[in-house]
Amino acid sequence: MNRPITDAAAGRGPADRLIAELGLVRAGGRLRVAGLIYTYRCTIGCRHCGFGCRPGRPDVHQTTAQVLRNLRMLHELGRVVHVAGGEAMLYWDDLAEALTAAHEAGLAPHFIETNCSFAADDAAARRRLEFLASRGLAGVLLSADPYHQEHVGPERFCRVRRIAREIFGQANVWCTDAPDERIGEFAAIARDERRLRAHVREHPPVIVCTAYQRLRGYLDDHPVAEMPLEAGWGRRYATPDCMVEWSAETMWEIHIDPYDNIQTNCGIILGSVTRTTPRAVLAAGPENANWVAGELALRGPGGAGGGAAGASRRGGARPRAHQVQLLLRDTSRPARDVARDGRPGRALRALNAAPLTGGAEKTPGRPLPGRPGWSGPLVCS
Q1: Which single residue of 31, 89, 120, 216 has CA 20 to 30 Å from 8?
Q2: Cα 296 to Cα 50, 52, 307, 311, 356, distances in angstroms
Q3: pTM of the predicted structure, to 2 decimals
């Protein structure tokens, strides 16, 4: 699936120019983003993680060859391209080698995400950030909230933010503008169950994967048919379907992971780069990738959206809504998501092989456990 570098150059040109004009943050908001999930392993295990990343995940990351191939594909999309995890800097030497090769090939990502756990002192933070700048990155995205600061000292985030703004400029550092004192408060919120409950209810995360497992108890249960319309990735739904998260024109983010999966944010597999490309998936319509994608895009998790139009897209047959809910709930568990040998688990393999046409008969071949209600807000991807 090697693609000409000229295709990537043509795709990244407008993104590079817009970043130079507006800065990374505003350009990313306008063009949307495409991400390379370097690893699912992380230095910490946040309660709100939408990908189930934690220290105990398999010791697997993308090779330099994968990074070059995948960055080439992602740059073809004309989006702002980044490297994420897990914590990509957990494998710093290998990551540095891959970023050097990407820079030499004209494929450098625009930014990298980090939880700042590496920044034990100013010298360590400056050394890595200056390296990233020397390899063609325009900036960084830094995570800070009560979930991250439960594990990472607030001073590390504040240190990286300060130095990153010196090196890249404030417009190219994607993070909260909250004062240092507020960042310090995040750790206190995480330690206080009453304050954490209030935070989750006031700022509900996207309830998938680890967030579903560890934070749903702080939110009210809703029968699926009565589930309120909530915000997804930066936007609030006006209808029960989730097409805004699946349309190629409005999808906030598309990823390639270490196992060659093309996936949504968070984690519904749309294909494999061994057989297709992100550009081809977007051109065909992500909602057409498989029956779960179609069900979520056209009807939403409760099966209320789409109506006759949704049914006609699948020839009138569709799986029951609760099958989608239970599959999502099941495959969001890390043990199901990635098997012990690092390959996608049985449920995801069945999903990836199932075409959109068909119906209930395409449900993976074993009953999935669960209960009929759904806790709190949910973004279908």
Answers
A1: 89
A2: 17, 21, 13, 12, 11
A3: 0.81
